[in-house]
Amino acid sequence: MKNIYALRQIIVSIGAFLILTWAFFSNEILGKIIICPFLVCSLAIFGENLFLILKKEKIAIVFKYIFQISFFVYAFGLLGYAIYYAMANKSYSLFIVIGIFLGGIIYFLKVVFFKNKKR
What we know:
This protein has helices spanning 2-25, 29-53, 57-88, 94-113. By secondary structure, the chain is mostly helical. It has one domain. The longest helix has 32 residues, at 57-88. The mean pLDDT is 88.
């Protein structure tokens, strides 16, 4: 059953990779910057599930960490841009929303990378 799920994830990640590759090469530089983390995420999902099917759990964990790091780089980059936008346009009420999302992302970062050994 796990292999069927992993195979489905591989097929979806290949499809996403093909669409994102097309979008990457058909956009300007700003679009390419936005698409890069999603390309890395789709490759990481592909690698993780491929090595899970091949019963190479340690290599699959490496790809899982690549996915997580790529996600957090994108999330913090997006928040950094939102902070810049809020300061440039003097929309200080946007800082409340940014603070909420920042708190959620930091909590998620703590849960993902700094797991409690008691759990």
